[in-house]
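User: Hi! I'm a student and our assignment asks us to look at how structure tokens line up with a sequence. Could you show me two examples?

Assistant: Happy to help. In each example below, the sequence comes first and the structure tokens follow. Example one:
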Amino acid sequence: MLYEMTVPPFIKTLKNLSALLDKGAHLAETKKFDVEVLLNSRLAPDQFPLTRQIQIACDTAKLGVARLTGKEAPSHPDTEKTLPELKARIESTIAFLESVSANDFAGSEKKHISQPRWEGKYLTGEDYVLHHAIPNIYFHVTTAYSILRHNGVEVGKKDFLGALPFKS
């Protein structure tokens, strides 16, 4: 179940994030300004800029899945400064997620997940997904969306959600 709650929606969300960035690049090209203006934008002075929001969204997806499965996530040194570099990071993260199968999550619900900043505390795999990984990726992608929208990029809810798996 944790596979279904993480890998497919994380892939979709990261693809949607990449498409949002494409719309930002289009606005920059149309309005004749450097796209790095968007990449360095933030909503508040004490908030991370768009670039860091993208990095953290990718880290949340890849490291969350890696912690649950024991697979090694790709390393990204957080040095991206350009749109192509950020899009490559998204693609690398998606490729990693696509390499993971539902079988890799066997027993992950009860696994103890910890991080240094949690000071020796842990969450079970299930609690980690429900209370940290899912909210965290959506927080950072929503913030990235909001930074772009605040700067005039024409994006809406459909861009954020992406295609829905309608049945007929």
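Example two works the same way, sequence first and then tokens:
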Amino acid sequence: MSKQEASKKRKELIAESTFRVIQSVGLEKTTIRKIAKESGFSLGTVQYYFPSQHEIYTYSMELLSKRITERIVQSVQKGDPVLGGVATMLKQLISNQDEEQYIENEVWLSFSLMALRDQALQPLSYSTHQNTKQFMKHILEILQQNNVLNDSLDMEMEAMNLHAFIDGLSVHSILYPDQFDEEMIVNRIKDYLRSKCTLH
């Protein structure tokens, strides 16, 4: 492993430790010292890679965004029925029974709320929001290209509506995990998409 790869791996381990600490004690009580203890690295090592707690949060948000994108790409299977395929892609934005992904989604919600008060995090939060909105438009374009989307829909407005629906489903799955399993989440997404399509 090269020095660069080793550095990247350590930063990811620190970010993952940050996720676990936030999920365990909450964002307000998270400290660099607690993150260092969770990671198994010394406080000095953590501060070498991230001189400030804000830098840990920024890197962690970027890592979460990257992992979600990777999951979306990996979920696409050639030959999938269009409705099932886009539902599976959207499902990657929502926590499920996988503990690691559940923690990531819970932490992402904490970061998003923190960005309301922390101006330094707002540009990244806004950028991520815009990227997600573009992804929603891409989903609708896939349906449109496959001639299943209702032609009368306003694409810009429907992208916003789909974004709000997925965000709401994601928050509910975090707050009430016992009521939302993977099958139920996928079915709710399919039901929503069907309401916008010409197929039923």
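Here is something you could point out in your write-up. The domain at 1-51 is CATH 1.10.10.60 (Arc Repressor Mutant, subunit A).
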